[in-house]
Request: fold
Amino acid sequence: MKKIALIIFSFISLISFGQEYAPKKNLPIIPLPREIKVADGLFVLTSQTKIVVMADGFQPEIDYLNHYFKTNYDFELATTKILPTDGNYIIFTRPDFEAGWKENYDLTINENHIYFLAEGNAGLFYAMQTLIQILPLEKTAEVKVPCVQIKDSPRYEWRGMHLDCSRHFFTKDEVKKYIDYLAMYKFNVFHWHLVDDQGWRIEIRKYPLLTTVGGKRKETLIGKTINKDGTVSVGDKFDGKEYGGFYTQEDVKEIVAYAQSKYITILPEIEMPGHSIAALAAYPQFSCAGGPFETLTRWGVSDDSYCGGNDETFVFLENILDEVMALFPSKYIHIGGDECEKGRWKTCVKCQKRIADEKLKDVEQLQSYFITRIEKHVNSKGKQIIGWDEILEGGLAPNAALMSWRGIKGGIAAAKQKHYVVMSPGKPCYFDHYQSKDKAKEPLAIGGFNPLDSVYLYNPTPKILTEEEAKFIMGAQANLWTEYIVDFKQVEYMAMPRMAALSEALWTPLDKKNLKDFVVRLKLHAPILDKMGVNYAKHFKSMK
Ligand code: ACM
Ligand code: ZN
Reply:
């Protein structure tokens, strides 16, 4: 096989030789590849084109491509292991040396061949995404593909998108659609925010009340308005309608497998010690004061949280995490850690006893104790925790990774302490913020302003870090909180095309990024989104 691959490689180099490739970038590919050269010719794919398989293990991607051809052009291609003597063909192969390519790929298209070179399936899958973006959108018997030479690899290992399914619930099919969008833009982490004060959305078999009680709220606060000056006033009316929904463990398994088939790891988030009212509505005994509680019907931060002095609380959370860890293959488990009001801990006898027994200084250190104790349990199962940047306060748990959301300070501090970091600062990574200054014309949002250009220009690695410290920045992600995002159409509107802009900030080498070029490409790319029926925001159409 090695010899054959070498012959093919030389052969392709030869046949590519006749073609003049130039570094033009006017194809609708997002994110922009590391290296791209375009030539004038076309490869004409028909039902007679063969797929030549020169490497084992690529069948899932070959099936994926054939499924795409079947759906869009109504034909599938035959596969062979032998090089045809006539006709054009698509070759799948790997380098015959160990290149250490996890997500890299080369894609060469000339008038006679489409040549995929990848070492790992993820790289090949990304090559497919690139190819699909330059295929014709209309159904045709002659699928004309531009000749192009691409060498591609990502800038960051963590390219994430988050979705809050607690404040509003999105169906299994909607979550899969979101995963499809991530895959199209070569994201590899889906951060699934599954629990919060306003709803617990994952079935935990040991604690059924989490979903039967915590999965519902009796009504939802509405009536927030945008004032003439653009400021936003919180409403004071409730809609009077019960709201609920959750994912069964079977749903979760199906979604995890779906994401895996697209090389996306799902990072589940189970919030603690704060943002826990839905859980405490079901099991109030794990709070400090004992409740009773109702799943919250308004947004914001609650005064109550899990009790850090009660050992039973830890048993409860560890049992929950055991079920979660069994469902999600992710190395990381997100344990929240943000916005925990600690007032109750100051007066709780159990919390105060814990502070005394453990010789802690204050409630900040009790939060640190809480997270470190949970971390020990998660580590004992071979997994790592990641938490919002508040987990720095009172001391970072020994092996924790950090998600920096209140700006980048937390991320910098953690990287300096040699902890891994995912950047997700409110500016520009909160996609629940407005994307236009003309707020009155936009769907109601939480506030803020994160336009497309600021997302595009984002550089996740702070300049202040040394080269060594910068290695701890795994990448970045955008967060989509859904207090004011009531349905999936609005999810699409808030996420797209800012997700496309972020993909380039995470994938494309810094020195290849160019905002003007991106806007040109996005305009060429928009028909793909139209064909998919995505409800994307159109502000870029007037950008120069
Ligand atoms: C957060 O936005 N509370 C992480
Ligand atoms: Zn307590």
Residues 226 and 299 are 17 Å apart (CA to CA). The longest helix spans residues 363-380. The mean pLDDT is 94.
